[in-house]
Hints:
About 40% of the residues lie in helices and about 15% in strands. It is of the alpha+beta class.
Amino acid sequence: MLQNPKRYTITAALPYTNGPIHIGHLAGVYVPSDIYSRYLRLQGRDVLFVCGSDEHGVAISMKAKKEGVTPQEVIDKYDGIIRKSFSDFGISFDNYSRTSAKVHHDTASEFFRTLYDKGDFIEEVTEQLYDAKADQFLADRFVVGTCPKCGNEEAYGDQCEKCGSTLNATDLINPKSTITGETPILKSTKHWFLPLDRYEDFLKEWILVGHKNDWKPNVYGQVKSWIDGGLEPRAVTRDLDWGIDVPVEGAEGKKLYVWFDAPIGYISSSKEWAAREGKDWEPYWKDQDTKLVHFIGKDNIVFHCIIFPAMLKAEGSYILPDNVPANEFLNLEGNKLSTSKNWAVWLHEYLEEFPNQQDVLRYALTSNAPETKDNDFTWKDFQSRNNNELVAIFGNFINRVVVLTNKYYEGIVPTPNELSEVDEATLTELKAYPAVISSSIERYRFREALSELMNVARLGNKYLADEEPWKMVKTDPARVQTQMYVALQIAAALQVLCEPFLPFTAAKLSKTLRVETLQCNVSTEKTTKTTWNDVAANSDLISAGHQIGEAELLFSKIEDEEIQKQIDKLEATKKSNEVDSFLAMPQKELIQFDDFAKMDIRVGTILEAEKMPKANKLLILKIDTGIDVRTIVSGIAESFKPEDIIGKRVTVLVNLAPRNLRGVESQGMILMANNAEGKLVFVNPDTDGVGNGETIN
């Protein structure tokens, strides 16, 4: 682990431009990386925070085919949506680029060519899956089949999303083309491979020895499992029609594999930033005094901890990542987030329904971040964290301090008198928090860091509750001056310390207190500039005589109705998915005509209906079958009320042998169907003029 680096290069995983951004992306990658970057900037560090849209690969081609548009139309549409979402949520990239940009095509091609010229690739003719009907080779995501490791029947050709195993398409059992549904054949094709096995010793030394104690256990464990299992050559080219051309002779029609191309996007984004800002990009990637940190989700660990480092090592002039603090997955209301099934909270939709409440979501996601294990986002927890923590603790403290300062002193910070032991202890405790929060952030424990931030607000609330300036103002106004001065120091500290986590709240506080930080520059007639280190070193963060502004509501209570609306929205999605994924039961064994002819099925009408005593599922029905009126006991009581089905036309199997059910003889069976939503539906004639007793044959 690099100590006291001169600069930081921070990358956030490039999002695929085949759909919008949802809360899983925000929780797993973009909020943690933004917290880290903002924190470092508040300390005056040299930070380059880059990302960009990942616009190549099979996911884009699949989306284009599905929507009947070109890949370019897909990437342009979603790049715009993604950029706006990041901007709306305050993700403070220094540069957000695109892998379709010329600077990226040039950088990726040059990188490939460098390794090619050094002889680092293996050129092989191999057999790949080919869809004869579509007349094309099948890239990884155009193939589904049974995972050879866990038996999942819907594994993709590059990865099983159930067990997390990385696969080759040819590993799948019973593969099918997602384009035509046909079983693919094997066909020879030439590709270039990066021989990862050559880098096993380097990776063992660098990761398993060098980062045993500072990388997260979930990351270290996955990497160790991969290395212990033995590394094999990995293809860096694909037979595709969308992507970056392989820049060598004999590679016509082939593109760079997206997982070779995409991480180079961090470098090309850095180049784009440097060209715009008039800076040199190379120190941020090639100077040993630079700390490189990749923020990713757990599904990208192998690429950022094994494949990309092997690429950088092969090239020879680049630094290696100091840390890869990958998060696990965030689930939604007990189910896995799914873009294809619309089981998600989309950021652009969230802001339509919770306008100006970006920090509430940032807070809820950080409080419940999946740092070492999968976690679950629920709307009830979101509401609770807002109402019971942000409103009741943070917002309550700030509101009381600002309101009382304006009430007692017309918004001017009072001059303190002699500090009591309580005052001294409170200010001493306040000074300790920057180091505590820093320690958590620098170990990538953002949940822990946020909890400590809230403890600063709790410190302020406790101080006011114990001191009760609203009572003492009548008997000892001189003492109240000191109390309010101390409380204002806590408020000023919160404005600085909350900025990495709650940037919009920090900006509001900056305006209210009329103070500035390195990232919250608010133009006012009279301002005070405060830094992260000032909170630890200075007891006079906001000086006597300084004029503050009026109180502004930082957070508002979220009502049950708003949350129920979101829960209902998800329930509607769940029902829609159930309908879309409904599969008819397989055909039963063949029967002979004589078997069917034995059944006497008639049209009937329900004359009476009542619940079976002490039975939740059974109704006792009197049915006119046209040949008689008979009693039939039916298990439909959980789906229908007796009074609602009297007069209902039904289809009855009348020659079913009688059966005694709870002391009532049932003389037949009514026919029902289950619809896609699992509800019972009567099977009855839809034509008028069909009388009771008519046979169905």
